[in-house]
Specification:
One of its GO terms (molecular function) is lyase activity. InterPro entries: CitX. One of its GO terms (biological process) is prosthetic group biosynthetic process. It holds the Pfam family CitX. There is one protein chain. This protein has 179 residues and is α+β, with helices and mostly antiparallel strands. The protein has one domain (13-138): 2-Layer Sandwich (Alpha-Beta Plaits). It has five helices and five strands. The protein has helices at 13-34, 53-72, 99-112, 150-156, 161-177, and strands at 38-43, 77-83, 90-95, 119-125, 129-131. A hairpin with a 6-residue loop joins β2 and β3. It starts with 12 loop residues before the first helix and ends with a helix.
């Protein structure tokens, strides 16, 4: 079943770069203000359209999953904020817990939740900077369409954009159409 949802016009590279800089400034400000690790959540949204009803709904599931993860583990958060922009939604949490443990469980969410492949949890530590998958001996992300490393397929544009976007939209539609 295909569901068309209204979308905002695509964003330019300059707008994406400006949004990335804004997100990095927010992360640094939160690290300085709270002195605790910061979870930064965004969506994997290939193509020029970064904001749509479909993407906002998938993002809301990610925010809820992260909130639930923090609650289940009784990890206190000092601040939480969700931002919606035409360049895509983002969220930040400042969490009073070791960054490596936060990253490990966020990676597990990305790998086990049916929408997790579309979520990008970055963990920033006041002392060590960004905590990556490699620091936890975790493999990099795989392509949405094949089993190759995602960065290799993206860089080489191995798959037509329409196929990649179609796969993302199908994943989201399948999640919301489940029983």
């Amino acid at each position: 079943m295909e569901i068309d949802t209204p979308v905002n016009p695509g964003v330019t590279l300059d707008e994406l770069l400006a949004a990335k800089e804004t997100r990095a400034r927010r992360q640094q400000a939160w690290l300085a203000r709270y002195g605790q690790p910061v979870i930064s959540l965004s969506l994997v949204t290939p193509g020029p359209v970064k904001d749509s009803v479909r993407y906002r709904n998938a993002f809301a599931v990610a925010v809820q999953a992260c909130d639930q993860l923090l609650w289940q583990h009784r990890w206190p958060w000092l601040a939480r904020e969700v931002f919606h922009a035409h360049t895509g939604p983002t969220a930040l949490w400042s969490v009073a817990h070791p960054a490596s443990e936060i990253k490990a469980l966020c990676v597990a969410l990305e790998q086990t939740h049916p929408l997790g492949r579309l979520w990008d949890f970055d963990i920033h530590c006041p002392q060590a900077g960004q905590v990556g998958r490699a620091s936890l001996d975790r493999p990099g992300r795989r392509c949405l369409l094949c089993d190759e490393p995602a960065h290799a397929c993206a860089r080489s544009r191995r798959h037509p954009l329409e196929e990649v976007v179609g796969r993302v939209e199908k994943m989201i539609d399948d999640w919301f159409a489940r029983d």
